């Protein structure tokens, strides 16, 4: 009988992981059947999503509250669907806040289907107690970072480091700036600045306006630029409305291939902090990152999170290779000043790329692609 795999991804970065995993699973088991919740890439690989992931893609202590009723309904709906489809294995991908609620409800209702979580909660950042409680909810954990398994295995949870997918995702990116410019009618005399304001509604509400205001300062000194804004369909309308207020010509692109082509064509990027920083590093694009929540959420984050760096490249190297503006430091003036400093210093841009590439090398897996390693674990647990 074909294996039935139930996948749950609650945000675009998880959708990317899920899409790669599904493709690898199909290569290993052509008759595999998929069910669950996912975004564009997972649907392209054969998933009929139970509901749009934008319903549950939200971060921040107080950002969740206005959507709590919808999120609780989606939790109940997901649990009921798992019980209905009776898969061989449930694979939850990142988004621990949502999937943990699903897993707890499954446990409470006595559902004994094997469960794998893909992407370890960052217990090395905060909420260290999660490492102790996860074995009660999942059968196996697949980690992206090489130092993570030891944090969970000491509490009895089987773990596998499968490597970071950014290595695989960017492996065959074509560096053809001329082709990208021609495709999007970007004149050769205009340098490209890539802007990634976020893929969640909450990010577009809190981070994007700050980046837009920083760009207003930036283009006063460098008006001869062309902005390229990669985004996803779920928030494309909001992104378009935000950037229409700028007098600078801009192009909005969709899809992974266009996203990476934009990275390689850009001289520099400004981004909402997250996995995108690794993608930019892999594509050799100098960048800075910013992230903030509401004022109350920033306060609680400051009280609870006790790490020097938030950007993974900086954490791996233990120094500030990628300029980061987080929480209360995410302000228009310093972001604009740093962007101008970087743009006007080719040596600074080159040095960042070289240093960041060294840190990125620590995330490379051995012997196989990350998605293949992950699929191997899923099939082993399903069997």
Fold and architecture overview:
This protein is of the alpha/beta class. It has 2 domains: 178 residues, Glycogen Phosphorylase B (Rossmann fold, 3-Layer(aba) Sandwich); 187 residues, Rossmann fold (3-Layer(aba) Sandwich), CATH 3.40.50.2000. 46% of the residues lie in helices and 15% in strands. It has 18 helices and 12 strands. The strands form 2 sheets. A 6-stranded parallel β-sheet has the order 2-1-3-4-5-6, sandwiched between helices. It has a 6-stranded parallel β-sheet with strand order 9-8-7-10-11-12, with helices on both faces. The mean pLDDT is 89.
Give a brief rundown of this model.
The chain has 383 residues and is α/β, with parallel strands linked by helices. The protein contains 18 helices and 12 strands.
Total helical segments: 18
Q: What's the average pLDDT?
A: 89
Low-confidence stretches: none
Q: Per CATH, which architecture of the largest domain?
A: 3-Layer(aba) Sandwich
**Main sheet strand line-up:** 2-1-3-4-5-6
């Amino acid at each position: 009988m074909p294996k039935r795999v139930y996948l749950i991804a609650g945000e675009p970065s998880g959708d990317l992981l899920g899409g790669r995993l599904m493709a690898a699973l199909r290569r290993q088991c052509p008759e595999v059947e998929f069910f669950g919740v996912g975004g564009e890439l997972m649907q392209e690989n054969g998933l009929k999503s139970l509901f749009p992931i934008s319903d549950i893609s939200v971060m921040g202590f107080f950002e969740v509250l206005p959507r709590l009723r919808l999120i609780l309904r989606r939790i109940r709906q997901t649990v009921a669907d798992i019980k209905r489809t009776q898969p061989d294995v449930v694979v939850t991908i990142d988004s621990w806040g949502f999937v943990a609620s699903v897993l707890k409800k499954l446990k409470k209702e006595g559902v004994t289907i094997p469960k794998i979580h893909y992407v370890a909660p960052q217990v090395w950042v905060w909420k260290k107690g999660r490492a102790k409680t996860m074995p009660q909810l999942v059968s196996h954990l697949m980690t992206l970072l090489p130092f993570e398994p030891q944090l969970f295995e000491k509490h009895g949870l089987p773990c596998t480091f499968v490597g970071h997918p950014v290595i695989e995702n960017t492996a065959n990116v074509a560096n053809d700036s001329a082709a990208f410019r021609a495709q999007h009618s970007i004149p050769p005399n205009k340098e490209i600045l890539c802007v990634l304001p976020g893929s969640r509604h909450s990010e577009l509400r809190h981070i994007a306006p700050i980046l837009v205001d920083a760009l207003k300062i930036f283009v006063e000194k460098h008006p001869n630029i062309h902005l390229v804004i990669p985004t996803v369909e779920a928030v494309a309308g909001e992104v378009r409305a935000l950037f229409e207020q700028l007098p600078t010509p801009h192009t909005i692109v969709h899809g992974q291939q266009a996203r990476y082509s934009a990275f390689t064509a850009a001289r520099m990027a400004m981004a909402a902090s997250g996995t995108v920083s690794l993608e930019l590093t892999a594509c050799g694009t100098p960048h800075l990152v910013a992230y903030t929540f509401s004022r109350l959420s920033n306060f609680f984050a400051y009280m609870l999170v006790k790490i020097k760096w938030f950007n993974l490249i900086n954490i791996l190297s233990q120094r500030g290779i990628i300029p980061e503006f987080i929480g209360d430091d995410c302000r228009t003036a310093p972001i604009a000043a740093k962007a101008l400093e970087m743009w006007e210093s080719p040596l600074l841009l080159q040095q960042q790329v070289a240093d960041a590439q060294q840190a990125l090398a620590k995330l490379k897996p051995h012997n196989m692609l990350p998605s293949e390693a992950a699929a191997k674990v899923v099939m082993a647990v399903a069997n």
